[in-house]
Amino acid sequence: xxxxxxxxxxxxxxxxxxxxxxxxxxxxxxxxxxxxxxxxxxxxxxxxxxxxxxxxxxxxxxxxxxxxxxxxxxxxxxxxxxxxxxxxxxxxxxxxxxxxxxxxxxxxxxxxxxxxxxxxxxxxxxxxxxxxxxxxxxxxxxxxxxxxxxxxxxxxxxxxxxxxxxxxxxxxxxxxxxxxxxxxxxxxxxxxxxxxxxxxxxxxxxxxxxxxxxxxxxxxxxxxxxxxxxxxxxxxxxxxxxxxxxxxxxxxxxxxxxxxxxxxxxxxxxxxxxxxxxxxxxxxxxxxxxxxxxxxxxxxxxxxxxxxxxxxxxxxxxxxxxxxxxxxxxxxxxxxxxxxxxxxxxxxxxxxxxxxxxxxxxxxxxxxxxxxxxxxxxxxxxxxxx
Length: 386
Known about the structure:
Layout: H1 12-21, H2 37-51, E1 61-64, H3 66-78, E2 84-89, H4 94-101, E3 105-110, E4 122-123, H5 131-137, E5 142-148, H6 160-173, E6 176-180, H7 199-202, E7 205-210, H8 211-214, E8 223-226, H9 229-242, H10 248-261, H11 266-288, E9 292-294, E10 300-304, H12 318-321, H13 325-337, E11 359-363, H14 368-378
Helix pairs in contact: 1-10, 2-10, 3-4, 3-9, 11-14
């Protein structure tokens, strides 16, 4: 329940496509550095209606070796040493090293957690953007802002009003927007893409996507960026130097996935199934009276363990003993209950770790029997609860 990989295979139409691709000569050789034409066309066709405009597959889409490498390529393509990138806390941890590898300096803006998050069930949407803090993070060196919606680890979908405010801010101050939307096919509430809000915002927005998240195959490492040709050009140039091209047969399989997903009803089925997994798993927190943040999208759940009393005489190893409380909770769950979770202070700077020290993140993208087993283990917390 810790790391966010799927506990089940991609659908058969995807795995069959991967097997078929291995029998094709061209699918076993280098692909063009910007990606296989079939996949770029399939992505453009799938996303054009969602963006409200025709996306040019040749100039406005580039394929990368997973979304993470795509974001690294964006940072390498645009960030000069000393230039600043604004990101929201909690953050996907890979952002940090990727920005620093490019020589960038990070300015952090914490999402404001719900005031009642430690005492009652709240919505992930209750984690709010503080635009005054965003303004405060701005300097003459600011170059880019990074969004993540639906958000990991919170599960928040940024509201249209929040995105409009961020987008207008970026237009005013000439910032590039890198919008990490890898969980975009798993929204449980209305989902707005920042690139659709205005031509001026779209002109500075790079949208990141992931076949691994879309099709349950995180190990395939097939991602992409969509954006204006003048921005995509630099991402593709950096990608060429980082890894030249991405895995050919799995690009081909992802293309088939996009070509067939809509007609097979896969997107809606996937969304409903994940909503069901969230509800199934969170039932144990309702049962135990533990508050949690109900996700608006994606497959992570944050639960608040403030009511769990760790034994005062419990011995933690040195690498855990001096870490925040969520690390101790995570260690305790592993050792005493046999259940893994992620301590979310890992997604915060030291000064803001206090916001997350009572929370743990769980990945629900697992088979239902695994979820039921995890729930049974969590019931073992009753004797430690006040």
